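Kindly draft a sequence, keeping tokens residue-aligned:
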Amino acid sequence: MNKIILPFLLLAGNISFAQFPVQSKMPTQFDKFILKNKIEWAAYISDTVRFTENNLNQILRDQFEKNGIKVSLPVTARTASSNKIIYATKSTVLAALPPDVYFDELAANLVDVVEILFIKKNKLRSYVAWVNPKYSVITPGGIRLGYADYFSSCFNYKYDASPSSARKNLFLGQTKRRILIDSFPAGQQLKSLFGKNLVESLWPSVTNGKVAIFTIEKNQQLSQPEIDTSFVFEKVAIPAPVYDSTGNLSAKNFLYAQKISPDVFKEVVIVQNWYYDQKKNMLYSLIPQIILYAKSDKYDDQQMALKPALKIIF
């Protein structure tokens, strides 16, 4: 069952998300790469994630107990602390925690993922800067106040770093995030050439054949001529008279086609496969596809009208 997470995220499947606050200061050592000319679009899309295949929270806590990974006190994205990471000892981290730290069933598999999505060389890519395992905040009277960060780890200082060999990577699960395309807050939007949104920035790659595009209804790949003609969920036929050489009406054709424009897509679902690099202690995400949502003429209500129309395969 899908669950909307305001202001622009929607949960799909068995992995939960929540909005993660991002400050407005920039650039930092983690997001300054967006100044490169080859980066066409970029935005922070950090979330609280509950992976289903393997428990990253537990893995990081176990490594922390054995002094097997580098950690720091909790870091918040786009702040002064993120511009100069200071690693901390186990005793320093524990001393900064409240007396009672709970890893109950709600927090034991919960991590904050500080992530930047960006477009480079015709593809939408993911860069995970670091991860914060969560714990539950509960008062002595048993009242739950929420979650807090245990520590920060999995620091990745290279936005285009490659993971280790496959045997060193642990699959954590797949997520699907449904995002309102034009609703990135100013503090999260990092780069947008000529004011283009995510889909508008990707669209030249679609029309130039650099990425494959499929219909949702029939899972059929569209050729370049087909991409130049649109479809709607319920086609409305427009009669076009056909005349013979003498000028007499001989038949009627029906026209449906109009040129596709990226502005008809209002939402996008981003499909991500997540891997933990055990050797490098880093989190990676691969984006195999995104699903574009367009408005169906069947409905008048804007929310009801948005339905999956096309998918882009990377």
Notes: The chain has one domain: 3-192+265-300. The longest helix spans residues 56-65. The radius of gyration is 23 Å.
